[in-house]
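ARCHIVE CARD
CATEGORY: sequence design from structure
SOURCE FIELD: tokenized fold
FIELD CONTENT:
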């Protein structure tokens, strides 16, 4: 049986933010719910994560289900992509592929 995290963390499995101008705290305050969403994930489980970044468009999905779609970011996205787990959380990644086209 999967245990859901408490609110509001249950709606923050996938988050977009862009340092330094748009950290997630600012996005939550100014544009709540637009840049983060839930996903059916849980402890002691493997999940397939897919993130696509192209120009001003970002798509993120878990286990074949698209969960976040941002189509009109202010300017083309460039820089780095990070995988983050909460403080005190242990996570493992396998078969990581980065396709920089």
């Amino acid at each position: 049986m999967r245990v859901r995290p408490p609110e509001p963390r249950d709606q923050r499995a996938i988050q977009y933010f862009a340092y330094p101008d748009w950290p997630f705290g600012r996005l939550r305050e100014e544009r709540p719910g637009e840049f983060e969403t839930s996903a059916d994930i849980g402890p002691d489980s493997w999940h397939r994560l897919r993130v696509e970044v192209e120009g001003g468009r970002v798509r993120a999905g878990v286990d074949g289900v698209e969960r976040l779609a941002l189509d009109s970011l202010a300017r083309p996205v460039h820089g780095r992509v990070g995988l983050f787990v909460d403080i005190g959380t242990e996570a493992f990644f396998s078969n990581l592929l980065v396709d920089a086209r």
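CARD ANNOTATION: The CA atoms of residues 39 and 65 lie 9 Å apart. Strands lie at 14-15, 36-37, 49-54, 57-62, 65-70.
SHELF: design records, drawer C
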